């Protein structure tokens, strides 16, 4: 990535920050077109790197949510999703760590990134941390959307891995964790029905059950410090909590002035 490209990405994010309506109406289209014309990996890598230093935490969270939706749903990002799915190369692992640090601005998108990259144990560890976060209506709405996304074609491989109960215990635990977060809504029923389809591991035992599963490719990606990533997630979320309380305090002061 040359300096001109990086400056362009900085100015684009500044434009999105100052014109939120543009981000809402045309943001996804603009980013998808850029991914077609330029290198999608460079675009996501540079935006994640810039958002890591973003001072407007609310904008950073919104932007990360937009980028994550594009990453998971756009046909233009098919190759990038495949690159992230297995984390086989140093480049893909480096991209995952870069995206992860910025994705921490939004807890639910961080979990979805872990699902995409098959980091199921880390996804479960993150969901365990959700009990310490401020659970808002927006937060639950995003969990609801993630459950809907799990039923989409993009996560077909994840659903099929539910057949391999023995080798994917943390995937099942993570999905049950999402289920426990949700109120009893349509998303709760959807995920509950999906988990009811998980087979009994004893019924799947065959004569070849002692052999390692061919579908189980890896436990964790090497050269990634997941403990440090989890600490970074907690640090970013603490900043968001402080910022929300400050905004709430300013709004309360403004209401008092209006009353007076």
TrEMBL record:
Protein name stated in the entry: VAC14 protein
Pfam families documented for this protein: Vac14_Fig4_bd (PF11916)
Coiled coil, from the record: none
Location (main, coarse): membrane
Superkingdom classification of source: Eukaryota
UniProt-listed PANTHER family: PROTEIN VAC14 HOMOLOG (PTHR16023:SF0), TAX1 BINDING PROTEIN-RELATED (PTHR16023)
Domain Vacuolar protein 14 C-terminal Fig4-binding: 20-198
Cellular component, GO annotation: endosome membrane; PAS complex
Localization per Swiss-Prot or TrEMBL: Endomembrane system
Signal peptide, first to last residue: none
InterPro entries per UniProt: Vac14 (IPR026825), VAC14_Fig4p-bd (IPR021841)
Key words of the record: Membrane, Repeat
Organism: Calonectris borealis
GO BP annotations listed: phosphatidylinositol biosynthetic process
